[in-house]
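Below is one protein, fold included:
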Amino acid sequence: MSETLLTVIKERRSVRKYDPSFKIEREEILEMLEAATMAPSTSNLQPWEFIVFLNPEERKDLRAIAYNQEQIETATAVIAVLGDKEFYKNIDPVYDSMSAAGYINDASKEVLVGNAKKTYPYAPEEVRKNLATFDAGLTAMQFMLIAKERGYATGPMGGFDKVKFSERFNVSDRYFPIVLITLGKENAPAYQTTRLAIKDKVRFI
């Protein structure tokens, strides 16, 4: 691990106080999200979707859905990370893209596509949701580290009414909300935290 990456990891904090006047361009948010989606995923099927909240009026409603947490309105943006329950619908686009890029040959593609189509469409929905939640979580964490490396603050938020969120923001049945991530410029120091001793959390066998 490089010293730079270790520093980013150690210095990242979940921020709740933001400078409401600070702006980040849409193009840069897209760049960070694109880099975040380089995270690994189940069979590379990328079971995630994002809604980026910039509009103040929309964020008023989002704040109410998120139990009136003020950072929803003071952060530069709020990124909602959604999971894709039907990520098997990405099988052909993903493997067609890999083939076009020259990363797999026709024989390998046929095997990979065949195996995926035999497995994921028939998996129970709960299994698919668990896989999507795990994969989207990897992307969310990667996004927060990328933002920190660029000098921005973030804060993950699991505390919001997910049913009301889906209703208010017209989330299709294919997707389900997992976490909100606030993004912006820190306006007050975040709490310092500690971790339990790693020796108490690891068992070598």
